[in-house]
Amino acid sequence: MARLTLLEAGLPIKVPGMTIDRQCGSGINSVALAADRVKLNPSEVILAGGTESMSRSPYLLLPQERPYDRLPPQFVKRRLSPDFIGDPGMGITAENLAEKYNITREEQDQFALRSQQNMQRAVENGFFDEQMVSIQLPGKKGPITFEKDEHPRPNTKLEGLMKLKPVFKKDGSVTAGNSSGVNDGASALVIMSEELAKERGLEVLAKIKDWSVAGVDPNVMGIGPVPAVQRLLKKTGMNLADFDLIELNEAFASQVLACQRELEFDLEKVNVNGGAIAHGHPIAATGSMLVTKLVYEMKRRKVNRGLVTACIGGGQGIALALERD
């Protein structure tokens, strides 16, 4: 994917590419690995990010046991964890967290509404304009300029969210309204040493301080940010209160609220311009999208420390700390 993408983007043939896969953490992980590489070789410049087309995600079929078998093809079940541990769908993991932490349906819908409202305010104020690149798409009446996210629902009301039925469990509380969407997206960042950036006359938007990853029970995979953040704080000697802004991926409202109850962070610092419930969650692209959002919001607010974190299907969490001078 990485090599194909860079060639289609017009980068020179001599530029190599590498694709990584850590599910929802891929975008953050690509940025973190790029930073680690630059530390080893300060002369390198790395384009790091992620891309996902969930609308065109292919189906995988099991091979036929016999040639010309008349039995219908069987789809491959996507597995993130062995059956003896538990391999539930992501929605069920969100329901598990809601039950474990006694998170109500109203709390989840209130959080989802906040995400939509925060993003709408950011869109109206043009906060994303500098971050986004428009693309031309073919249309029946000529090219169409695609320059805004399709997923946000700016007219969302709490009453409408409360009317939605649970989609993963009959008597559950997780709905389409308080979950992230199925989306296409891509994002990328340029990673290089501070010295090289200054040498080339480029603005340093932020510095990558450190990062961490941790494993959790796949049945409650959404709690992954908790140990990942705790490990990062221990590595850096920081406290959660030291961060001015936090981007915590909104896979589900219940998942964010469960992490908040464990980490006890100030919710007013979190996803101030909306999150994945509003803008969607194109799996591999989301992490680098969140890093981009955080960098520009830190710059806009003139604050110094930011944290980005996400849960990961299969039971992991990832966290990355940013700084600005």
Q: Could you explain the architecture of this structure?
A:
This protein is of the alpha+beta class and 325 residues long. The protein has a domain at 80-182 and 206-325: Thiolase/Chalcone synthase (Peroxisomal Thiolase, Chain A, domain 1, 3-Layer(aba) Sandwich). Helices cover 34% and strands 16% of the residues. The protein has ten helices and eight strands. The protein has helices at 2-8, 26-40, 90-100, 105-124, 158-163, 194-199, 225-236, 253-263, 276-279, 283-301; strands spanning 46-53, 135-137, 144-146, 184-191, 207-215, 245-248, 305-312, 316-323. The strands form three sheets. It has a four-stranded mixed beta sheet. Strands 1-4 form a two-stranded antiparallel ribbon. A hairpin with a 6-residue loop joins strand 2 and strand 3 (144-146). The longest helix is centred in the middle third of the chain and has 20 residues, at 105-124. It is globular and about 60 Å long. One of its GO terms (molecular function) is acetyl-CoA C-acyltransferase activity. Residues 203-324 form the Thiolase C-terminal domain.
Key features of this structure:
single chain, two-stranded antiparallel ribbon, 16% strand, Peroxisomal Thiolase, Chain A, domain 1, alpha+beta, 8 strands
